[in-house]
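Continued from yesterday's entry.
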Amino acid sequence: PRARVWSLVIPDPVLESRFTAAAFRSAYTPLVIFLAAWTAIHLILAAVYPAVRDTGVLTALAGAALAVARWRANRMADQQRARKLFGAALVVMHASAWAALLLIFRVHPPEPGHPGLVVAGGVLWFLVSFYLRHSAIPWQSRAAYAAINALGSAVLPQLSV
């Protein structure tokens, strides 16, 4: 059976379930490697640039927590349940990280920075959105991720670059 054109859902529920479980499992190693690099890069940035110390450490901790959550999900026998739980963990972590970032910016307003930081952040959001679809994260989690980004971006303090 062919996937539906707009939703990319396979009409046969058994085949759809097997496909999403396999997609979720196959995306495990690339994600853990990405999150390890993410964590290391943000820790290095926090050490080298004192202006981003708080947000760098926060972002590194979020990356490490997601790597642990994904590792735990990979070990579950029921990969359908694992992908839903990981999707929920991703949303909770993402909302928590945005809330902490906004709180940090409230206490310590951001300093003018390089415009490349804004571009890099946008590119990361874009790539993560593709990853979430590619790895069969449930649509509810993907929609919540996008909504959190939109809301968080809307309430950010004015940034100078």
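--- second protein ---
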Amino acid sequence: DKWFCANMNLQLRRHQHLFMGRSNVAGWGVFVRDAVEKNEFIQEYTGEQMSQEEADRRGKIYDKRNSSYIFNLNNQTVLDAMRKGNKTRFANHSNSPNCFAKILLVRGDHRIGIFAKRRVEAGDELF
């Protein structure tokens, strides 16, 4: 049901079906199975929560590998999807993104929702 608010979608784990595949941009990418309308919730960006200090330590390692899945939740907490993330971590960067991240407060916890910036056609890669 598209009428659920974003918080309810996160709480109920309701999301779009995604699949991984080879990207024309870089390595692996994540793609939507079905078309998604503008501003529609796609999926939660998940990972391991940690302190800013630990994220800085890991970030130095990731920079050497030219691969990072770190996302700031707030001033104290960072999310690292490298080991415990879901398929959304494979969304590649683009100068013309078709989705955006939004930090939401869900039952007292900061969580990251990924939403369509514009209509995304079935089979399109997320950027």
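The first helix runs from residue 6 to 11. The mean pLDDT is 90. Will compare against the first tomorrow.
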